[in-house]
Request: fold
Amino acid sequence: MKIRSLPTWLTAALFFLVVGVGFQIVFSQGWLSAYWQQVIMLGTLMAVSALGLNLKYGYAGLFALGHAAFYGIGAYSSALITKDWVTGWSGNPAGGLAGVLAIEVGFILTVVAISYFKIGHLRSQLRDSLSRWLTPFEASVLATAAILVAGVLIIVVIGGGSGWLVRRGVLALVPPVLGALPVAISQQVIFLIALLAGAVLAGLIGFLVGLPLLRLTYDYLCIATLGFGIITYVFFNNADKLIPTMKGARGMVNIPNLTTWPWVFICAAVALVVMRNFIYSSTGRAILSVRDDPTAAETMGINTFKFKTLAYALGCGYAGLAGGLYAHLYSFLHPSNFTWLKSVDPFVMVVFGGVGSMTGTILGAYSFEILLEGLRVLPAEFIDWRYVIYPLILLAVMLFRPQGIMGTKEWGFLKLPSIAKRKREQETSAGAIRAESCASESQED
Amino acid sequence: MKDNLVKILLKALCWGVLAVIAGVIVSIVGGWVAENPVTFVQQMLNGLQLGFVYAMIAVGYTLVYGVVKLINFAYGDLFMVGAFVSFYGITQYGLSFLPALLLATVACVFLMVIIDRVAYKPLRDAPRIAALITALGMSIFLEYFTALKFVFSPDYIAFIRPFKLVTWEVGGVTFTNIQLVIAGVSIVYFLGVQYIVGRTKIGKAMRASAFDKPTARLMGINVNAVIAATFALTGALAGTAAMLYATAYPQIFTFMGIQPGLKAFVAAVIGGIGSIPGAFVGSLIMGFVEAMTVGYVPLGSTLKDGIAFVLLIVMLLIKPTGIFGDPFEETK
Reply:
């Protein structure tokens, strides 16, 4: 009999403890230069972003190219919050936080209200009842117009109203409460809130974008999400017309430098654990089934569109979290970091590491960043070669090993949980036996 | 009686809503025209010039997509290579307009066929996503490889026009000979492609391969050769379009292909991908919208890259198959 290995949670905890504390010691002892410390932190946060893309592309099978846009949304929104807390660009230290939270709460309540009133259903009902008097064209025009007016009213009254309330509440409550804490602690608290708010905003916008775009497939989805990435890029470039401190094409400066190794590491560890548990849950299995065979999944009663949207929004949220960490790592943001070509970076990581493998994605992220930054040690005339090499790697992987280095294999605690696996094996073997006996019975017949 | 009253009221309401929408659009455009009719016509001409260049690229995209079902991401970069080849032809060898055009066209044909052979052909039967990623990789490779110092250099280079710019003025509206050349060449190419695809034997083979590859193979069509021929044809389109584009907007750099390439693809989707007249019409619309954005929308010159994609998303929501598209295309 095989010796039982450690329980999964213990392995995971030990692993995280060793890696986290180990790197903390390495960093604090100064065994690595500040530059390489940044590279490792960048690799870790890119791993978070790539995990998000792996969820979208690897698990849900959505070939979407707009990842950098959500990375940018998370980066800019969280930077606005913390920068406001430190420099007070909006006149109130909690102004940025109030704005972002107001948008989020307003958005969520609007969505809830719209789904509560069943707007789409109402439209067809209205159209049907109108068609008693009108031709189908006229009826659908009138129904659509009525629903649009109702939708705008809901957005203004519910979304706008709740947003306004939240904004007033945050402005009134947050500065005195957090101001009472010592500066060092209050900054960390604001940073945590900013990271979460950035991730949630990216996820919500992902949801909003996904609603129309995820009805498309393959190339159409690819080009439409790429288009969304370009629209966001254009927006970042002109953002100073809306919010002066974002500085548009000149780049946003003076973002507090808050990203440290513990922050990056804890965020990455939580993101990884959440992703693992999510993908092995029943929801995760539903997402995998949508990827493997949408028609069969639909027959089994799985709402494919819902799970696609969920996976897409969650993946975008991961990108937003990574973006928030990135913004506070270099304390400078420029729109050129969020062009559509940057969406290809996490893509290369996923494809190189293994499509649909968390281990592969993380390995891919680190090897990508370390390769890209490590090649900087080359003489100056070879630096430009870095971006020649990485598409070549992409091409080579696609031509010779399209499933990536790891394929769909996982290591350690990222494997399919053993209990579930054992149960599944039993079921399949039982099923096989049953099938065999059935076959023999039918032969006897 | 009451029913009739309700009917009339609702009808009035419905057409009133439509009339208000139409009125708003007409009054905005009418405002532009009334403000300065000459500028408006001039903007339209600029839009047409851009649209005719996009049309050549879009036809290339639509041909490849029709036959191989692949977004040829490297196409925009092929376009860039064409511009650089014609530039070197003009400056190094002192070529005049037509030889330079021919040189760029031939170079692009060869490069496109080589790219197909090296990168796309091995993945012909792989999942479509794999080919798409390969095309993306090829695109990035071409961009950064040509940006190396010993290839084309990463600098912005001023393109030297192979012929003198001549302008005529008719009632305040300025025409240039470049506009005439672009429109002429673009229409000739469009008719040529229509002829090749619609009337020749190779065109018939292309259509057969687009429709059903295995059956085409059974019918004795050499599908790989047909696909290579398609790529060669699109290469010719890219080379010619590149030279014309560089003549009209005389600044070249190794990333110049991205935006025209993407916009032309969007134009092809708007027109209905797989349809050649669709690509042509979609491109003219795209050029027109872009010129109007630059001319009349505040901050237009910075927003013009975004507007193409707003148009795309709106189009995909209303009619994903495009203006001329096959209504069953999307479900295939």
Summary: Chain A is about 75% helix and 0% strand.
